[in-house]
Design a protein that fits this description.
Elements lengths: L2 H11 L21 H11 L3 E5 L2 H10 L6 E3 L13 H4 L4 E5 L3 E2 L4 E5 H4 L4 H4 L2 E7 L3 E2 L2 H7 L2 H4 L2 E4 L4 E2 L7 E2 L6 E7 L2
């Protein structure tokens, strides 16, 4: 018997018994008692910011009060914008994009954004500032819970966005806004 055969024989003899797969209880893994606080803390830690408001009216008032630059595109309908005529070169001049977000994840500060809400796939990545408007009821603890609530078959393209663009590839020096928004804010409408 060759060395190779001896090794394979030894492996076959010491093979552990198969056990049936049991679905883990993911609710026991991570469960934050205050989702809003956790989401805000994580988003701030990764370079974004978070503003809680009581209603859609208050969200509009807050967004009106901040400096958004000259070229603002809003796909939420609060500030109507027509993106159909804009080329990618035109979108490069966007100062602020305001987009409705979906499920928001407390463990990593990310927000699910569908193509339907962003209207143009380029918009959330080319604007200098990104404002995502979400509802508190859409906060979940983990990515597992987020994936249970989204259906890519229905929405098509979608992306989780967490904070502004960041990279630390060169000399491990953090650069914010190198290949995307320089700033990202979540405006959370409380239930």
């Amino acid at each position: 018997m060759s060395s190779r055969d001896k090794i394979f024989t030894a492996i076959r003899k010491n093979k552990p018994e198969s056990v049936p797969y049991t679905e883990p209880d993911l609710s026991l893994v991570i469960n934050y008692p205050d989702l809003m606080s956790q989401f805000s803390t994580v988003l701030t830690a990764i370079g974004g910011s978070c503003k809680e408001v009581a209603s859609a009216t208050e969200a509009k008032q807050f967004i009106d009060s901040i400096d958004k630059g000259a070229f603002v595109i809003d796909t939420t309908g609060v500030y109507p914008s027509d993106l159909t005529h804009l080329s990618p070169a035109s979108l490069a001049a966007v100062d602020t994009a305001i987009i409705r977000g979906g499920v928001a994840v407390a463990e990593n500060g990310s927000i699910w954004v569908t193509e339907e809400n962003m209207v143009n796939r380029l918009l959330p990545f080319i604007a200098q500032q990104l404002i995502l408007v979400i509802h508190e009821k859409d906060l979940v603890s983990t990515m597992h819970q987020a994936y249970e609530r989204i259906s890519v078959n229905e929405t098509g393209f979608g992306v989780f966005i967490a904070g502004p663009s960041k990279t630390a590839d060169i000399e491990q020096s953090l650069v914010i806004g190198a290949h995307g928004p320089c700033g990202m804010m979540a405006v959370v409408i409380r239930n």
